[in-house]
Batch of 2 targets.
Target 1
Amino acid sequence: MAHRLRGAAAITGLGITPMGRIYGKSSTDFAVDAVRLAIADAGLEKSDIDGLLINAGITGFSGQGVSLQLQNALGMGNLRLLNHMNAAGSTAAQMVQYATLAIDAGMARHVVCVFADAPLQQGGSSAAAYGNAGRRAGPTGILGLSAGAGHFGANTSYALAARRHMSLYGTTQDQLGAIAVAERSWATMNPHAKMRDPLTLEEYHASRWIVEPLHLLDCCLVSNGAVAVIVSPPDEAKDMPQPPVYVHGMGQGHPGDSRRAGDAPETETGARLAAETVFRMAGVGPEDIDVCELYDCYTYTVLVTLEDYGFCKKGEGGAFVEDGKLGPGGSLPTNTGGGQLSAYYMWGMTPLSEAIIQGRGQGGERQVEKNDLILSTGNGGALSYHASLILSPHAN
Amino acid sequence: MADSPPVKPVSQPDELTEPFFAAGQEGRLLLATCDSCGEMRLPTSPTCPTCLGEGLSWNEVSGRGTVYTFGIMHQRYHPAWEPDLPYNIAVVELDEGPRMPANIIGVSNDEIAVGMAVEVAWEHEGEAPVPRFRPVA
């Protein structure tokens, strides 16, 4: 018997602002633009919106991010659902989950979920935008030992995780590179993508080291911009202008890190726990998934996520991706818009927005043939927080 | 104002970890032992994350462990670290179980390997003690 909540809500609106090195707008400005676009896309009026969930990006950590004040910037009165959420890169999927639950509970009808960020400043590098945002002025205690050893930012954390996997399982640089190459192939067909020139494995290897074993092209972009989606009840979704994309499965997994022997958060992630829940709710398994839109802050994140969802065995992710099956024409189309590596970095909205586009059949040149079941994941922290959705163009 | 050279940020003791850093000044490594369950840890909170018990005592340990993972920093993030590029950063798994971030010294970056046996070697940045590790001879 199908899960009671399978198909309990549908995504009916999508708004994507221009993204990248775009200056002169605050996170809140971008958020307003994305919400306006999403409302128009869904064929709704502003007054139809009665729920608003907000996720600030890295600028949220420095107090410059979009806040609850967005409600007033949008002039939205009488909201029945409002929150500012942050479980890092897993938040976008989580917002759709909580919106779905609220709609099922009758708490709200049309819920806007929005992510916005504007860390890039004119003349500044991406590394400055991100690495410096994570730098603490005065490290203290045990947690301060990282900064004291010269560990700055997420690039280092993910390099340490990737190295552990390479050492345990023999994963190679070529295999990480295969992910970057496959995603770039998709990006060449995505008008939203920042990096649209084809990429060879040789060019991947030639890109400079950031934190070995991660090359520049193992790392995501940094973008200014915003993405908003609207979640609606299924009985209304079917009569709205866009092809509805239904929520079939929802799951989360947050493994924590005891920082002691016996734990392996670098190589066995929260995706394992989320996989059990999301597949059970959707009543399917990895073999049924047609398209993957996986959070890809780094190439390695894609590899370990594929393992943890059971697309291959633990430790075999390298061999799994090496033959190019993630790319155009491959057997498991993955990150079909180019992902965060080659298209745009809107935290969990990068995979989610592309999942919606593919679910609607609006991928143009890059549209996959079979889109019945789409897995869209979000990951945050250093593989610390994970949430996922299984989406489908079919109501049930 | 004269330009002073950039200084590496170094972790400073807080109330909880004062004994840890004081022992480091003397080249000794202490771990906290939970008074309730006996688990040894590098404490980030006065409460034991295993049993949620309160109260801990500090005990000197061997300072030996193995490299759990490591990376080589090439990107400049902090001006004080620039002369050291490329430098290594490792996570060392102590024989008693806790893992700690540290640089590996006394060996070239090319020779560091996961599983390599190491022991603590306290160094100083200015006045502050910094735990680093060197390969066991």
Note: Chain A touches chain B at residues 127, 131-132, 135-153, 155-156, 159-161, 163-164, 167-168, 208-214, 258-262, 266 (CB under 8 Å).
Target 2
Amino acid sequence: MFYYSIKRLLMLIPVLLGMTLIVFAIIHAIPGNPALTILGTKATPEAIHSLNRSLGLDNPWYVQYFSYLKDILSGNLGTSIQTNSPISSEIWPHLAATIELSFVAMIIAVFVGINAGIISAWKQNSFLDYTAMILALIGVSMPVFWLGLLEQWGFSIKLQWLPSIGRDDIRNSVDPITNLYLIDTLLRGRLDQFWMVIRHLILPAIALATIPTAIIARMTRSSMLEVLKSDYIRTAKAKGQRMIWIVYKYALKNAFIPILTVIGLQTGLLLGGAILTETIFGWPGVGLYIYNAIQYRDYPVIQSGILVIAFIFVMVNFIVDLLYGLFDPRIKYR
Amino acid sequence: MPQASQAQPEQSTVKDISPTIMAIGEFWKAFRKNKPAIAGTFIVVFFILLAIFARFIAPQGINDQNIGIRLQPPSAAHWFGTDDFGRDIFSRIVFGARLSLRVGFLSVVGSIIAGTLLGVIAGYFGRFLDVVISRIFDILLAFPSILLSIAIVAILGPSLNNALVAIAIVNIPVFGRLVRSRVLTVKEEEYVVAARSIGMGDMRIIFHHVLPNSFAPIIVQGTLNIATAILDAAGLGFLGMGAQAPLPEWGKMLSDSREYIQNAPWTVLFPGLAIVLVVVGFNLIGDGLRDALDPRMKN
């Protein structure tokens, strides 16, 4: 297991390097001179020249790439054109907001998706099964941003049950410690604020969770159907074990590997979907950070934002890979 | 002459029906039993007809503005109501079908062509090329697709066509990997080894044996990918990175009317419904094709 982890970790290196190369290439392929973007159209040629030199833009591309790589490894993600402050310090609160939102969405997706899938497989071809699978089909076909808008209209504007924008109320804002508000409010012992943060989380988290929920439900159903047909399940039934026990204890454990893979892959979708969800709900995460950067053509922010999200995605899949053995001891690591 | 034509059918039932036609017949038998897939086909055909005959179906042009009737609720005159410029939403959705279907089909065809080419090169010729191409696929797949599309659109500039290109590029590895794995399996089959031993060239083997055997999974994946391509294009349109005003692209229509949601929810409701419906259609067909073409599920 230990050697396998090391080996997998080493295998990540070329992927991570390739990612930096792609992000680097993208920014350099964007037409227009970055110095001109930073200084504005009224800049003198001398000013552009000197900025080019100080940014190292007059060097050949591979020299620029290696200095970019060196910057990233030392934790320097560049400077935002818009705010003129270092992105590495600016991005953390946004990242925390995205992580909190994605995490809650993933919990919803896993809980609802797995249970819906189990019930569908257990009661195959019943009314419940059909309903769950039709909902799952609509779920995978739903544009996240449309669902988000409908939620806002229904639950915020019409019913006025839940707030439609942001992470907290402006007049009762959370005093951040870790920037993960659920944790911060608890650390400060502010249960009223904790509840407020949850109320802000509900709508965006449900919107973001829709597609992963649907995909996990479909995967769980097909995976469970296969396992429920196996001999050991029949034996358990013959022994008179209760069905609910069989399904949740014995069957789910063996059906979990493909489900786990899907969960890992869905994290990417979740992080990607965050840009749409966050835009609608004014959720100040990396998605909104990138969206605003797009509007201002703040390329260093777009570059670093994309890189950070891709990095998290790769790491989550690495962790999922290691978790396989935990759920299925038959998998041997070599 | 009559004698000859009488003698003919006996032989033709065995010899003349090509394996392709037999395969299609068998596929159709399985596919038509799948009710959801047939429903999906109806939905997609409906939208294709809508797109083709948009000029005749839409009561108004996409840019016929009339400020006097802005933000009107659905009525007999305007089935889906009007938007903030007083444009007929139904007409815009009908014309929008052209844009969404075009992006869906063309981007997927583009990714299939490029992905197949790279997948065949990687799988068939192997070695160094395989390592390089497979690693590039791994890296591209490490990015959430919408983010990579955004980055590509940032290079090319925001427009519907550039969104199409971006979505096509992002999906290349999906087909590339699929074809590569099929090629690796087919390459070792006895009939391919036999073909090679009688001196068949690489190109002939690829076109006669390898590609026809990769056809079914590509079609299944392609259909499902049309659905996601339409969703991604709408997402890019919504973010302002895809279709630009005044094009009646459904995602763009949603983002343009979101500020009116409080008083005119229909401006948001119908474009979204159109997206859901067409995507459901392609997903149903894709699932049906998989069931009908995948021999594992057939058993």
Note: Chain A touches chain B through 44 residues (CB under 8 Å).
